[in-house]
Design a protein that fits this description.
By secondary structure, this protein is mainly β. It is built from seven helices and 25 strands. Helix content is about 10%, strand content about 50%. It has a 16-stranded antiparallel barrel.
């Protein structure tokens, strides 16, 4: 995780606090955050009550020629120009769906809930430097509510509210599709197009947490503008955009967060499928991401937790250092062969200061489905998507869902001339049980080795983490 220490005092980015052994009353949370929830409800109303505005724009866009490649959906026939039927129909399909009878407006309400728990052990060297690191703990990892709307198949809007800690916006954007010579135009808060593992939704990740270098280096969600498209029947995808580096948008402190941005990121990604067969049961994915970050006289600090969110301690972390520019590069590889898959990425972090600092890392992991499924792949986005078990969990019908075993090795080096953030290597094994399309149980075991860190001084230390997650999403 890259930490930015703004030059203006007091403008710090909020961080979620684990609920270590605490019970939280939902009623107290709602009462304490009633002002922020009121703002959130107002934003939802704006989305739900303004389809006419988007519909007018979408109808104008319909006069443009459709130049999309490999599009699967067609625009349905509509009623009289300029009118939207007052009738609304609703149904449940992995979320609550509402749509106008003429299909011009479609709205989906969804959410996700992830609850984590586990135990951390460490040797005396780590325990001495991090006295609060070890022990059993539990946390509400994520509690999000989502609203998505589509207008005339040309305009898509999404708002994703995070109530895990202080109410914040995760995703919040509008996309215009099928623009000649551009493809898709996105405006708003979204993940920057960088890193295969980072772009996969957190409800679809193979492990409970992303790898060491992904968390340390990959930019996450930021407000900005992005254009993207696919070519050659979605065998190639690309995306490029400019973003204001502020991170999560706290609803209770929005203006201050935006004013405390640390710079501008110019980020792009390209992916290719040299091999794709049997509707994705066999494929080879190659990708390359690049981000050039222009800092605004900010101090930079790079570090990460040991692939667990149960403790806030970072076993490897650089001291603060000045960085006027940062260049990030990530090379991606993924292979799927029926139930077996391999995924790997190599990261390079180059900080431009009076001296240039080179930090790097990589990960490699394998997964195998014991129940004949395969990792589903979204060719339009160049990422892996949501698994649907062949048979949902139902013991009365002798159906036990989908089972996946996983193994990962990750390495992160935060040491360079003048910087001694330490080195860490992790081995993570796990078991995923997909009960149905909307529920999953995960168990991970992490063995972490830490080397050569200065302040605190750690020549060599190790830790073991056993953790589990139950998630529901729709």
């Amino acid at each position: 995780m890259t930490h930015v220490i703004p030059a203006l005092a007091g403008m710090t980015e909020p961080h979620a606090t684990p609920l270590r052994g605490q019970s939280v009353s939902l009623f107290k949370l709602l009462r304490r955050e009633r002002k922020n929830i009121t703002r959130t409800a107002a934003l939802i109303c704006i989305i739900l009550l303004s389809p006419a505005v988007f519909s007018v724009g979408a109808k104008a866009l319909d006069s443009w020629p459709d130049v999309s490649k490999g599009a699967q959906a067609t625009v349905p026939q509509r009623g009289a120009a300029g009118s939207i039927s007052a009738g609304v129909k609703g149904y449940w399909d992995n979320g609550l769906h509402l749509q106008s009878v003429d299909d011009n407006v479609r709205i989906k309400l969804g959410g996700r809930l992830q609850v984590d728990g586990g135990t951390i052990w460490a040797d005396r060297r780590l325990d001495r430097n991090y006295p609060d690191f070890t022990g059993a703990s539990a946390e509400l990892r994520r509690f999000w509510v989502e609203v998505a709307a589509t207008f005339c198949d040309r305009v898509h809007a999404r708002l994703q509210f995070d109530f895990t800690d202080a109410p914040a916006i995760q995703d919040g954007y509008v996309i215009i599709h099928k623009i000649p010579a551009l493809g898709r135009l996105l405006l708003g808060q979204v993940k920057e197009p960088f890193s295969l593992e980072q772009l996969i939704s957190n409800v679809n990740t193979t492990f409970m947490e992303v790898s060491l270098p992904t968390d340390a280096f990959a930019p996450a969600r930021n407000p900005g503008l992005e254009i993207s498209d696919s070519a050659l029947a979605e065998r190639i995808t690309w995306a490029v955009g400019g973003f204001w580096d502020v991170g999560s948008l706290d609803l209770g402190n929005m203006s201050r967060v935006l004013q405390g941005g640390s710079g501008v990121n110019l980020t792009g990604r390209i992916t290719g499928l040299p091999w794709y067969g049997q509707k994705g049961r066999k494929l080879l994915h190659l990708g390359l991401s690049y981000s050039h970050q222009l800092r605004i006289d900010d101090l930079l600090q790079v570090g990460t937790q040991p692939e667990s969110d149960l403790s806030g301690d970072m076993l490897v972390e650089t001291p603060q250092f000045q960085a006027d520019q940062v260049d990030l590069v990530a090379a991606e590889l993924a292979v799927v062969y029926a139930g077996l898959s391999l995924q790997a990425e190599l990261f390079q972090h180059i900080a431009q200061v009076p001296e240039t600092h080179w930090l790097w890392g990589y990960y490699l992991y394998l997964s195998y489905f014991l129940t004949a499924e395969n990792r589903p792949y979204d060719t339009a986005k160049g990422i892996f998507s949501t698994l649907q078990p062949r048979r949902s969990f139902n013991p009365l019908n002798n159906s036990w869902g989908a089972w996946e075993i996983v193994l990962r090795y990750s390495y992160l080096d935060l040491n360079d001339t003048g910087i001694s953030g330490g080195r860490e290597s992790n081995i993570t094994s796990g078991l995923n049980w997909y009960l149905n399309d909307n529920a999953r149980l995960m168990v991970n075991y992490v063995h972490a080795d830490v080397y050569d860190r200065h302040l605190p001084t750690i020549g060599h230390g190790n830790a073991d983490i056993v953790q589990s997650r139950f998630q529901v999403f729709f």
